[in-house]
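Entries read sequence, tokenised fold; example below:

***
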Amino acid sequence: MKEEIIIPEGITGEYKEKKLILTKDGKTNERIFNNPLLSVQLKENKIILEVKGETRKMKRILKTNVSHIKNMIKGLLEDFEYQLKICYKHFPMTVENKGTEIIIKNFLGEKKPRKTKIFPDVKIDIKGDTITIKGHNIEHVAQSAANIENATRVIGYDKRVFQDGIFITKKHDKKV
């Protein structure tokens, strides 16, 4: 089984030691392909992925990696964007961006602020009760959004009563 992905103009690709690096205008997306069942080749403006055999497992491996590469290309052409909403009922919480860290103060009236890590290549914009996360790597953007959402997860309380938190409301093109 074989799939070919055409690299659009303006994007340069390099494949060395099981690592695919795609670059455009100073942005770089890279991915390591260390599955022994998958063969990756870079020829001219095409990425060729190939697996031996036509079983469901092989098809699954191939299609998954094709989707990863298409997301890498899409991220270089246009940024991925996630939006989160800050929700509170009683205690007003404040959210601050400090470099590669997000600090959440006064969550449920707690004295100690909650902190979470974000990836350095992700841009965060906080306006009022909306947090916008943008970046060219979908995995970094999505993981940063998930880290923020998990930092305000309510544990040990009834979720129907304590509905405070920060929640993902929009993923790049889809509403949640």
Summary: The radius of gyration is 20 Å. The mean pLDDT is 92. The longest strand covers residues 80-87. The helical segments are 56-77, 138-151.
